[in-house]
Every structure is written in structure tokens, then in C-alpha cells.
Write the C-alpha cells for this entry.
Amino acid sequence: MTGCATSAPEPSEPEVLSASKAGGLYLSAVCPVNAEWDRVDLEIDRLRLALGRDEASTRDAARALTDLAKASERSAKLLEPKRQSWPSVAEPAIDAVRETLRADRTQALRVAKLPADELGGYVWQGGDEIAAAAAEARAALGLPADAEDACAQWSEQQAASEEPSASPKPSEESPKPKHSD
């Protein structure tokens, strides 16, 4: 049969990112992980309080840690070089962040299985390395030094880009409600 032969699609080159696009992509990858960390911290604090009352259950903390593991893996995949080409000045820092995300994923899945008393007293391994890698990546991408500030700015930009235009066109205005006497 002619015309039925299929050819494999040619591999596409990774997108070369501008500095501003690289910063936005980086934040879109890591800010959701930071939000999951906030949830983990909250659930661990709740667990510690419950341990003091002998009412501890690890269910919510374990769920938060599992969600953190999923977010970390998604983020690491978004930062992979086969998807895009990072600015050369940022590439080593992005690689380091990606590795810390994968390590966090593994650790979170392991810690989620700990009994309540061990989970309540657990100290996260590699925290200094994670913070240093993230700070280096933010600096290389020209982002705010403070992670919370960077993610807050990113969140505001996301919200602004999702808002409908502030003033509707006359044809788009909704009818005025009628008032009854």
C-alpha cells in the first residue's frame, strides 16, 4: 500500500528561554511546591499539638507529604532540559534545584510512612542544600532573593493575567436589573 507508511516525528529542539520567560517558568514550577510545603508545615504542627494530647493521627500529615511528593515530581519534570534550554548562567542552578526536588519527593514518600511520634519529631534532611540551590537559581534568573516575595509576585501576575478586562464593551454589558415599585 502506498501512502500508509508512517514516519516518526522529528524530535523538536528544546525551546530557548529568554531570561524573563525562564524566570516565569521557574516560578510556575516551584511556587506550587512551596505552597505544598506550607501545608505540610501546618499539618506537622497540628500533629505535634495532637501528640501532646495523645490524640495523634498521621493521616492528614501523610496526605500532605504525599501531595508534596507529587508536586515535587511535577516541578522537577517542568525544569527538565529536554523541555527547554535554560539561560546558560542559570542552567547549573536549575539542575541543582531539580535534583533537590527529586530528593524531596523520595524523602516525603518515606517520611509519610513514619509513625506519629517519629513524624512529629522528624527533621528534614538537606534543608540547607535546598535553600542554597533555590537562592542560586533565583539570583541567576534575576528573581527576588526572598522565595515568598518571588512567589507572591508570580501569584499576582498569574491572577492579573486571568482577570477579564476591567471595562466591558457596551455590547457585553449585562442588562440593568429592573426595580419593582
User: Anything to note?
Assistant: The chain has a mean pLDDT of 84. Strands lie at 15-16, 84-85.
